[in-house]
């Protein structure tokens, strides 16, 4: 018996040849007659159409195309779910809401009994596969209007106006047995083409050094141990496209999620640290919002900003957001238990009690995304085609949205990444050139609390929430990017406020811009004593912030007061002994000076 005969017998066993009623004129090309008022479908024609459809799907898989699988019959749900899980495609059900493809110009609101869903347009798929071509479904009309190819099952009951819109029709009865066979063929087509694609990538890597480096990089991530991480220098990342349209498409896949769970009590500030005023009346949160809005305005993209607040910070955050009406900002509140976890995590980091893994991946991430999912804000993001989260876990006022990093993650299918900086010990032990990636112990790098996560990674994390997984166990292998100093402007102590409020940074259209007059790419190292730890004390001890453009380091301890118009250069150390007060007079310039008493101000003292 030939393979052809075996396949025909398989089709007959699924009752694919039995139509529902006598065929209309346009369907007679697939029929060989009728019996008892039912059309008999030619299995030879069904087999030919199956081959054409699978060949078309395989060609799209090689091009990494997007698919949407549509089914209106609940009997097929389990079969299709199993298929999409095997081939690695997300089973998108947003098609159940009318206008899911054609509502890009005017987002619609859908109201249910318990919730309201704001649905904007998803990224259009490259192909729609329909298993039950129900006449009442609007998916076919929408896909045809947007000229999206349709692969669908057709039978003798389908009217002509619907039939003409199917690009690759497969004539067969939509029985459970045939749908299972069809899904099995699609799965095998996907897996076969994916293996071919991976093999082609490996072969081309031999001829193309840049591709070979990417493959080797991914291999290193896979073999790195649980107590280590693969650290890639930021300079090794491929530059983002100069085409504004491509950059817009890239940024439209991003969501920024900011944690606002930290109070400013460690700096003597009663409200959330995000509401702390930094410069020119702008708070930390204002600067983050302005940065994202400037990106949206520059590229014409739509990056939403999600605010994860706690009960203790929510009111203060909402007061700041009153200055930013009509912007794509959404705030929601965590539970009190999650707030305690965040505070415990921050304290343990300070006391160095956390494991090396939790220093990179905080243990409360699962609870954060569970809260996001319960708020009803996750599904709309998936429907809009968002693919990556940028998680901001602290007050970092640098330009955190970086198309260069996002492009690298998407291009190399990296699901999670942390931005790190080397510790002193790690820097001393590292002997590799800075332009090469390295496998490094997690003890020798510190996270800057900026993390990237793919949407598929978030979905898997949520699926495992019932199995007792913590996020630190889930991220057993870390990929990290060695972040340059320009991407890290923290607000953790009053010494950080001194840098941000000085002439080293200025606020231009609501965002911080570094003074080009400073030659050193690093910001000066500043240590202020406990007398400056409180924000109010800090402001009272500085009549005006000194000029620090040429400053390398500053260390101040004891009862020290600063006048106006002071300039600090080089290395400066000011230490007031107990019971002694030092006042730096107005207009004073201190360059490479050690001051231990008021009398030292009159004469130079070299370091």
Automatic annotation (TrEMBL):
Molecular functions (GO terms): structural constituent of ribosome; UTP:glucose-1-phosphate uridylyltransferase activity
InterPro entries: Nucleotide-diphossugar_trans, Ribosomal_uS2, Ribosomal_uS2_CS, Ribosomal_uS2_flav_dom_sf, UDPGP_fam, UDPGP_trans
Enzyme class, UniProt record, top EC level: transferase
The reaction(s) this protein catalyses: alpha-D-glucose 1-phosphate + UTP + H(+) = UDP-alpha-D-glucose + diphosphate
EC number: 2.7.7.9
GO cellular component: ribonucleoprotein complex; ribosome
Gene3D superfamilies in the cross-refs: Glucose-6-phosphate isomerase like protein, domain 1, Hexapeptide repeat proteins, Spore Coat Polysaccharide Biosynthesis Protein SpsA, Chain A
GO biological process: translation; UDP-alpha-D-glucose metabolic process
Annotated keywords: Nucleotidyltransferase, Ribonucleoprotein, Ribosomal protein, Transferase
Keyword flag Transferase: yes
UniProt superkingdom: Eukaryota
Classification via Pfam families: Ribosomal_S2 (PF00318), UDPGP (PF01704)
Keyword Mitochondrion among UniProt keywords: no
Protein family membership: Belongs to the UDPGP type 1 family.
Record's protein name: UTP--glucose-1-phosphate uridylyltransferase
Organism field: Solanum pinnatisectum
């Amino acid at each position: 018996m030939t393979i052809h005969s075996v396949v025909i017998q398989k089709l007959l066993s699924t009752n694919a040849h039995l139509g529902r009623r006598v065929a209309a004129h346009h369907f007679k090309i697939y029929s060989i007659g009728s019996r008892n008022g039912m059309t008999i479908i030619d299995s030879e024609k069904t087999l030919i159409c199956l081959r054409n459809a699978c060949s078309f799907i395989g060609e799209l898989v090689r091009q990494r195309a997007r698919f949407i699988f549509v089914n209106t019959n609940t009997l097929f749900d389990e079969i299709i779910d199993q298929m999409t899980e095997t081939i690695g495609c997300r089973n998108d059900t947003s098609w159940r809401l009318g206008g899911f493809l054609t509502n890009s110009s005017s987002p619609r609101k859908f109201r249910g009994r318990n919730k309201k869903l704001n649905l904007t347009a998803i990224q259009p798929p490259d192909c729609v596969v329909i298993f039950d071509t129900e006449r009442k479904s609007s998916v076919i009309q929408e896909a045809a209007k947007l000229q999206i190819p349709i692969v669908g099952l057709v039978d003798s009951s389908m009217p002509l106006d619907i039939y003409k819109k199917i690009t690759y029709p497969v004539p067969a009865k939509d029985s459970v047995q045939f749908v299972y066979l069809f899904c099995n063929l699609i799965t095998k087509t996907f897996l076969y083409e994916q293996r071919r694609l991976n093999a082609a990538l490996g072969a081309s890597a031999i001829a193309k050094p840049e591709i070979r480096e990417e493959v080797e990089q991914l291999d290193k991530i896979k073999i790195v141990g649980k107590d280590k991480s693969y650290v890639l220098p930021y300079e090794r990342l491929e530059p983002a496209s100069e085409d504004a349209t491509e950059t817009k498409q890239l940024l439209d896949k991003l969501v920024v999620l900011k944690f606002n769970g930290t109070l400013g009590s460690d700096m003597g500030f009663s409200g959330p640290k995000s509401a702390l005023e930094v410069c020119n009346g702008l708070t930390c949160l204002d600067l983050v919002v302005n940065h994202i809005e400037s990106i949206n305005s520059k590229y014409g993209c739509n990056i939403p900003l999600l605010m994860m607040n706690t009960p203790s910070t929510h009111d203060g955050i909402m007061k700041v957001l009153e200055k930013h009406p009509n912007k794509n900002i959404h705030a929601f509140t965590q539970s009190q238990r999650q707030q305690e976890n965040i505070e415990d995590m921050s304290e343990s980091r300070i006391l160095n009690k956390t494991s090396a893994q939790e220093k990179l991946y905080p243990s409360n991430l699962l609870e954060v995304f569970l809260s996001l999912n319960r708020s009803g804000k996750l599904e709309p993001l998936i429907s809009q085609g968002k693919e990556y989260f940028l998680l901001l876990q602290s007050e970092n006022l640098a330009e955190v949205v970086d198309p260069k990093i996002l492009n690298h993650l998407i291009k190399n299918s990296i699901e999670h990444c942390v931005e790190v900086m080397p510790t002193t010990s790690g820097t001393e032990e590292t002997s590799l050139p800075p332009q090469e990636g390295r496998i490094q112990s997690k003890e020798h790098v510190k996270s800057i609390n900026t993390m990237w996560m793919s949407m598929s990674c978030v979905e898997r994390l949520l699926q495992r929430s019932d199995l007792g997984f913590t996020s630190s166990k889930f991220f057993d292998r870390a990929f990290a990017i060695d972040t340059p100093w320009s991407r890290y402007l923290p607000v953790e102590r009053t010494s950080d406020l001194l840098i941000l409020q000085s002439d080293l940074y200025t606020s231009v259209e609501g965002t911080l811009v570094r003074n080009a007059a400073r030659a050193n790419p690093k910001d000066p190292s500043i240590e202020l004593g406990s007398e400056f730890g409180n924000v109010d004390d800090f402001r009272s001890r500085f009549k005006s912030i000194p000029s620090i453009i040429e400053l390398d380091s500053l260390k101040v301890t004891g009862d020290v007061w600063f006048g106006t118009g002071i300039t600090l250069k080089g290395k400066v150390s000011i230490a007031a002994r107990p019971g002694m007060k030092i006042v730096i007079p107005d207009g004073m310039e201190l360059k490479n000076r050690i001051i231990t008493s008021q009398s030292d101000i009159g004469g130079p003292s070299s370091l």
